[in-house]
Structures are given as C-alpha cells and as structure tokens.
Specification:
It is a single chain. By secondary structure, this protein is α/β, with parallel strands linked by helices. It has a single domain (7-236), classed as Rossmann fold (3-Layer(aba) Sandwich). It has helices at 7-17, 30-41, 57-71, 94-121, 133-136, 146-166, 189-198, 207-219; strands spanning 22-26, 47-51, 76-79, 125-130, 171-178, 227-230. Strands 3-4-5-6 form a four-stranded parallel beta sheet, with helices on both faces. Strands 1-2 form a two-stranded parallel sheet. β3, α4 (94-121) and β4 form a beta-alpha-beta unit. α1 packs parallel to α2.
Length: 237
C-alpha cells in the first residue's frame, strides 16, 4: 500500500484481518503509517513500514523491490498515494502541476510497472488504483483543483490501459473513486451537513465503505478495467 493515512488505515486493518501480510509506504505521515502497521500486527500478520518519496521514479522502483524481497512475493498493489491541494488557476505553477502528476498519476504507473514482473512470475495479482468520484463522473465540479482533477482522470485511463495490457498475465487492474467518505479536518460542521444533503443517501460514507470496495475487487476473478464510484449516489444529484 502506498499511503496509509485516514482511509488507508482502515484498509490496512481489513486486509490484516484477512491474514494479508502488509507493506505500507509513507512520505511524511510516519505516525499514521506506524500506527497502521502496529494495528495490523495485532492480528498476527507481518507489517513493514517504509518511507518513500513517490515523486522519485527511483524511489518507486526501490520500494517495490524491497517489499517483494521482504515479503517473499507480491500479490496486491494498492496505489493510494495522493496530493489534494486547492489553488486558484491564476496562482498555479509548473511545480504545482508536476507534483500532482508525479504523485497522483506517475507513481501509480511506476509502482505498477515495477510490481508486474513479480506478479507475472507467480501467475497473477491485483492492482487497485485510487481516482476520485468527480473524475469518474467525467466533468469537473469544483474550481481550484486543475492538476488534481487531471491526474485523477489520468488514473482512470491508466487503470483501463493496464487492465488490457496485463489480462493475459491474470493481473486484474481496477480503481476506486471515493466520494464523500471522510470530511477533511478543516471542514466545518455546516459544510459537512451541506455535503450530506447533496448526497442522495444523506450521509458521509466512512472509510469502511472504501475498504469493502477494495476487498470486493480483490475477491473478484472477473472484474478488470473498472473504476468504481463509492459516493453514496453523489454523482447522480
């Protein structure tokens, strides 16, 4: 797993409950990653926590190699690492653009590219990428997120392309597109309620709903190339 903050902590716990040995990478959120690892170990599985700057191609390749060596095999890759930064278009810099592409899109490609030989050698595997419900809906809805939106739309294209490329190797590639799951820390109670009212199911989903979707994709032997919205119907309202 690349990234184990907030939603990632819950996914790690659910995988560990199923007996999955884990490797969790983090960039800056060491405390959260260590906590996820410690929680996983209470179930009896192994959990390795590794720092990696996934904006670096070399770091992506090194991370996957180290994980495969430590775990002895590589069955699942979950590309969760992401940057979510609001910035007006007029204030955007080339660095802002590049950083979003490097972490939100390119890292998913690089980690997948590095993981595929290990999966191919053992007869198959699963890759789960993370997009966004807005990108999955096919049109932007919020101003100030140009690089993020473009990168997350690219994740969908990457998912579909890899699904086709890797089908013969029994490597299934899918993506999750979360909607209103966990409110950002700086969101007010009034803003939370506004989002809930705009969601047909009338509430925020909670990290457990994303974990359920991930597990469903890992369980399936016949779903590939899909990007599944987990948004409480937000896209239809």
């Amino acid at each position: 797993m690349t990234g184990a903050k907030r939603i990632g902590v819950t996914i790690a716990a659910e995988l560990a409950a199923r007996g999955v040995n884990l490797a969790i990478s983090y960039s800056r959120s060491r405390t959260e990653a260590e906590q996820a690892g410690e929680q996983a170990r209470t179930t009896g599985v192994s959990a390795t926590v590794i720092q990696a700057d996934l904006s670096s191609p070399a770091a992506c390749r090194h991370l996957v190699g180290v994980v495969a060596e430590r775990l002895g095999r590589l069955d699942i890759l979950i590309n969760m690492a992401s940057l979510y930064t609001e910035r007006p278009f007029a204030d955007l810099t080339v660095e802002d653009w590049n950083r979003a592409m490097e972490v939100d899109l390119r890292a998913a490609f690089l980690c997948s590219h590095a993981a595929v030989p290990f999966m191919r050698a053992q007869g198959g595997g699963r890759i789960v990428n993370f997009s966004d419900w807005v990108a999955r809906s096919g049109r932007p809805r919020y101003r100030g997120f140009v690089p993020y939106y473009v990168a997350k739309a690219g994740v969908i294209a990457l998912t579909e392309s890899l699904a086709l490329e890797l089908a013969d190797d029994n490597i299934l590639v899918n993506a999750i597109a979360p909607g209103p799951i966990l409110a950002p820390p700086d969101v007010t109670e009034e803003q939370k309620q506004d989002v809930a009212r705009a969601t047909p199911l009338g509430r925020w989903g909670g990290a457990g709903e994303i974990a359920k979707a991930v597990l469903a994709l890992l369980d399936s032997d016949f779903i590939t190339g899909e990007t599944i919205r987990v948004d409480g119907g937000r896209h239809v309202k």
